[in-house]
Amino acid sequence: MIDQQTDNVLAITKLGRNLSNGDQSYAKVIRAKKGDVIEFYILVSNVNSTKYANNTIVLDKLPVGLNYYINTTKIDNIANADGITASGISIGVLRPGEKKIVTFQAIAGEIIGQYTLTNIAEARADNVNLVSDTATVTYSAVLGASTIATGPVETGLLLSTLSIAITGSA
Taking the model in full, what pTM does it have? Predict the structure, then answer.
């Protein structure tokens, strides 16, 4: 079962996938690097058999390091106005048993000093408890790889140095 938070009326599930890597499936943990496009998936459901969730609002709190990709928000695969990461967006009334899927994209930006970002989605409605769920973006980087020269001259010097070190001769 997918993790989700639920109260007596609303339930929410938050997942994501890295479109730049060609990920086909949504997951709780998304691997990314700077410049990657991440698509987030938020499932909001009314799990109550009799109570309506009136004026349902979905808000996604992007952490520093993830930047909203404009004009990518959709509700049930239909384009919607931006605002999900600002004040939230309205998904209207959820009748008992009804669910809505909200998707949007973000671009992985520069991060300093941390490699895991927690992205929080929230849903609230009139006279209903707020529910939230998270997805984690883990930055993958080979530390220092961008500063290590690997051309033919450097490789030759490295092999010569290793050869001298191994044989003990100069």
Answer: 0.78
Contact (Cβ atoms closer than 8 angstroms) between residue 80 and residue 113: no
Whole-angstrom distance, CA of residue 84 vs CA of residue 23? 23
Mean pLDDT by 10 residues, the chain (170 residues): 61 97 96 95 93 96 94 97 96 96 95 84 93 92 46 45 46
CATH code at 118? 2.60.40.10
Helix (H, G, I), strand (E, B) or coil at 56: strand
Q: By the 8 A CB rule, do 3 and 28 touch? A: yes
Domain that holds residue 65: 5-143
Q: How far is the CA of 149 from the CAs of 73, 140, 142, 146, in angstroms? A: 42, 20, 14, 8
